[in-house]
Amino acid sequence: MTKTVVLSIGSYAEWDIPPMRADYDLTELSSPAGLDGLDADRRAAVRAVAYKGHSPFGAAQMDLLPGLELIANFGVGYDAIDVAAASARNIRVTNTPDVLNDDVADLAIGMLLALNRNLTANEAWLHRGDWSSKGDPQLARKLSGARAGIMGLGRIGREIADRMAAFKMEIHYHSRSRKETPEGWIWHERPEDLAANCDYLVVALVGGKATEGYVSRSVIEAMGPDSVICNISRGTTIDEPAMLDALEAGRIRGAALDVFRVEPDLDPRFLKLTNAHLQPHQGSATVETRKGMGALQRANIAAFVAGKPLLTAVN
Ligand code: NAP
């Protein structure tokens, strides 16, 4: 039986490629930029793309693959893929929701603890020998018991809220509509009202055009002077210059950020901040979760090839 032609795009872990090679007639590209270099017959034969990465995959790329029927994204966020362009070409899109919720939520909590408890600076203090020469480092700040504000109580937002509730925090959230939650969680209809009523504003929105700058300058201005912003969603969801202005001026206390508008060459203003804990987009980056994401991506391709319903369809 002839194998289905699948094109993998992106940089995959060593365990992801062998199963695709075994099951499909696989062509491998490290980025969509390589599409132009593929032979036209090979491009025409491709029925499914296993996509991984944040480079745009839009109409121009799809038009280079005239036989394409499925784009299986590695990741829950599919803002790099032009889903409208895919739908217009009858191309189905899938993503990998839920399998990464725990890790992204864990990182949000980890970053907030790192920021509040000065973990990075205190470890450097110890390594430099300052503990013996200068004594104890400066006091840190307490996370437990403060007011949490979740911007976007979706799958990941809910996991973050559950963790923050376990830290005895009062839970506030903004979603476009009120959600079913444990008793006492407070919904705010306006993002500004959420910002004004929490100490830790954690952004867990989807990325893409619809939420660009959702955490606007006016939302950031509504935050209190002792408050902290945390972003594990996408850099696009926050008005980045407005956030940088607030951090540089000390109008908010700090930031814990895993994502940036431009990655990996983030705005150099971030690197000068002394009140931010920054991570290089590590939300789902554990061996366990990345294996789960790869497995779900391949399960979607397998369902497509078998003519079965897709497991986690986007369109
Ligand atoms: P989800 O369950 O779909 O939740 C998304 C949230 O975004 C919901 O609260 C939803 O609001 C809100 N939203 C969607 N469209 C909106 C719009 N037009 N206006 C306002 N709010 C809107 O998604 P998820 O699985 O939690 O994932 C969230 C995002 O996390 C992903 O899209 C991805 O970008 C990001 N992520 C980051 C990492 C990382 O490494 N840092 C890893 C995985 C995911 P409602 O509650 O009103 O429906």
From TrEMBL:
Pfam families: 2-Hacid_dh (PF00389), 2-Hacid_dh_C (PF02826). Keywords: NAD, NADP, Oxidoreductase. PROSITE patterns: D_2_HYDROXYACID_DH_1. Residues 109-283 form the D-isomer specific 2-hydroxyacid dehydrogenase NAD-binding domain. Coiled coil: none annotated. Residues 44-315 form the D-isomer specific 2-hydroxyacid dehydrogenase catalytic domain. InterPro entries: D-isomer_2-hydroxyacid_DH (IPR050223), D-isomer_2_OHA_DH_cat_dom (IPR006139), D-isomer_DH_CS1 (IPR029752), D-isomer_DH_NAD-bd (IPR006140), NAD(P)-bd_dom_sf (IPR036291). One of its GO terms (cellular component) is cytosol. GO terms for molecular function: glyoxylate reductase (NADPH) activity; hydroxypyruvate reductase [NAD(P)H] activity; NAD binding. Belongs to the D-isomer specific 2-hydroxyacid dehydrogenase family. This is 2-hydroxyacid dehydrogenase. It comes from Szabonella alba.
